[in-house]
Amino acid sequence: MATDKRPSSDSLLIVGSMAFDDLDLPSGPARNVVGGSATYASVAASLYTPVRVVAVVGDDFPESALKMLQGRSVDTGGVERTTGKTFRWAGRYSPNLASRETLDTQLNVFADFRPKLPEHYRDSKIVLLGNIHPALQLEVLAQTKSPKLVVADTMNFWISGERRTLLEVLSRVDALVVNDEELRQLAEDHNLKRSAKAVLSMGPKLLVVKRGDAGAMLFDATGTFFAPAFPLETELDPTGAGDTFAGAVLGFLARAEKIDHGTWRQALLVGATVASFCVEGVGTGALVAVTHQKLAARLRELTDLLTVG
Amino acid sequence: MATDKRPSSDSLLIVGSMAFDDLDLPSGPARNVVGGSATYASVAASLYTPVRVVAVVGDDFPESALKMLQGRSVDTGGVERTTGKTFRWAGRYSPNLASRETLDTQLNVFADFRPKLPEHYRDSKIVLLGNIHPALQLEVLAQTKSPKLVVADTMNFWISGERRTLLEVLSRVDALVVNDEELRQLAEDHNLKRSAKAVLSMGPKLLVVKRGDAGAMLFDATGTFFAPAFPLETELDPTGAGDTFAGAVLGFLARAEKIDHGTWRQALLVGATVASFCVEGVGTGALVAVTHQKLAARLRELTDLLTVG
């Protein structure tokens, strides 16, 4: 794979899950698909910058999946392999892929996950705290040395069950990346704009809201930006698209000369572009095959969607 | 109301319904609200250009509603007043306004509507064929003399029940404006992009897809454009927002010096902006109070949502 990394990329740390997914897709069933938020985010971020990943897997997790990551400049020194089974999720998508239901969740080794940063990870400048227990997100933060940008993800389970700890996380991160349902649940308000304001008052200076095929929005003190989803003719599997989006955004930011208003907006377009490739394949299948040439062409098409004149 | 019309605006004809709406809104019930596609579209279009409207009302329709339109340079000479009751629609919105159910539809005088264009309407250059029976849309077209732009709307009822006549309409219009559900139903495909391609092969050179708070998209041979919905903090009543959008788009196009690629894209942003005001009030309440100063300010905000740098 061609890479496109400036020598001075900021070091990027990604913490999250590695998993097996059993997917009932409109195109047919797919079993034992290697997934998890850390996997998708790392593959996506590695398009732009080297990655350091922290996760836990069981003794059933294929070495080939870790080798694939290593081949993309993903440091897997922080992936703990422990006795037992890897986290497993099973879901069924609706025929039009617009919704899905969880059929089964087996936490397995993920239930006792206590992220430990290898010594050489601690100076990471950019940190993506994937969707894990907020108490663990705080433990990760405690192991880092003055990162310059910390971005957190979370989910409905922690918003309802671990609100106090989650609010502690929010007070300590620079940005939050959630989907629109999670945003509304966190703000306890059905209105997107008011919810965004409420969450920005909880600590993060920046909020990214993922809305599936309705695109992604960026809210900060200076205003709002909208990145459309790339309109695809072939949609196979949306699993991991949100994590792919976040990973690509962080990877792009890590490689940027400076992170300002315009960098963030561009990063959202990059995230939407990379995520679109994810949906075109099952699991990380299409994502790992993306070339920088294809990425650049699609990013131009996406940018044209926003061009008035 | 301040108006902003170049002297040489192209004449705009709008055909559709005038109605009473009974609305169960999260903010409370609203009864006998003057609505209908022609009403919303005319009010919106009149922000940019004089309008000629064709519709039918019963003897219960308030003269004050027609006077309101006349005060906005809407020619109501084509509004037929007939014996009987005006078309009535009743609907209930979900608490977050994201969905609604129809409680009752009484066609009344609308059931026997046969649109008749006054002689001085026949030279209209721009025509909006609102959501009426496709056979009536064809009758309207037959009464016009070489319009330069014809845009049609339609709905699920005609797509499933009058498909052949609707396809005849599609073969004779320049553009179609529908929501995403109608698009998918028309194309018989759940994929938006493929559906758009399919509909463009049915005749229209241009397709506008309304997606509610997910914005609107424009498809033509040259590409795709995306206009986000303006993120509102106060949402009272989405009734008529789609018709308001279409009316504003057509009004803006009628006033434009020329209608090209960029004009259409700008028109979608204008449509999204005007529609946002519609949602902030009940019925046309907020829409009729819009000033060009407020419009311009919000259009700048919406444009900033698309500005990367």
Tell me what the structure shows.
Two copies of one chain form a homodimer. The first copy, chain A, contains ten helices and 13 strands. Chain A has a nine-stranded mixed β-sheet with strand order 5-4-1-8-9-10-11-12-13, sandwiched between helices. In chain A, strands 3-2-6-7 form a four-stranded mixed β-sheet. Chain A is of the alpha/beta class. Chain A has one domain (12-304): UDP-N-acetylmuramoyl-L-alanine:D-glutamate ligase (3-Layer(aba) Sandwich), CATH 3.40.1190. The longest helix of chain A has 19 residues, at 261-279. Chain A has helices spanning 37-45, 63-70, 134-143, 156-161, 163-170, 180-187, 192-200, 241-255, 261-279, 292-304, and strands at 12-15, 19-25, 28-35, 51-57, 74-81, 88-93, 100-106, 126-129, 149-153, 175-179, 206-210, 216-220, 223-227. Chain A binds chain B through residues 95-98, 190-194, 196-197, 211, 213-215, 217, 223-226, 228, 231-233, 235, 262, 265-266, 269, 301, 303-309, and chain B through 95-98, 190-194, 196-197, 211, 213-215, 217, 223-226, 228, 231-233, 235, 262, 265-266, 269, 301, 303-309.
Topology:
Two copies of one chain form a homodimer.
Chain A (H helix, E strand, L loop, with lengths): L11 E4 L3 E7 L2 E8 L1 H9 L5 E7 L5 H8 L3 E8 L6 E6 L6 E7 L19 E4 L4 H10 L5 E5 L2 H6 L1 H8 L4 E5 H8 L4 H9 L5 E5 L5 E5 L2 E5 L13 H15 L5 H19 L12 H13 L5
Parallel strand pairs in A: 1-4, 1-8, 2-6, 4-5, 8-9, 9-10, 10-11
Antiparallel strand pairs in A: 2-3, 6-7, 11-12, 12-13
Q: Give me the CATH superfamily of chain A.
A: Ribokinase
The end-to-end span of chain A amounts to 35 Å
CATH architecture of chain A: 3-Layer(aba) Sandwich
For the biggest sheet of chain A, the summary is: 9 strands, mixed
Low-confidence stretches of chain A: none
Structural class of chain A: alpha/beta
Output the number of helix runs of chain A: 10
| Global shape of chain A | globular
What is the radius of gyration of chain A?
A: 18 Å
Number of domain units of chain A: 1
Say what the CATH topology of chain A is: UDP-N-acetylmuramoyl-L-alanine:D-glutamate ligase
Largest interface, by Cβ-Cβ below 8 angstroms: which chains and how many residues each? Answer: A-B, 37 and 37 residues
Total DSSP E strands of chain A: 13
Order of helices and strands of chain A: EEEHEHEEEEHEHHEHHEEEHHH
Q: Quick one: CATH class of chain A?
A: Alpha Beta
Oligomer: homodimer
Overall mean pLDDT of chain A? 95
What strand line-up does the widest sheet of chain A have?
Answer: 5-4-1-8-9-10-11-12-13
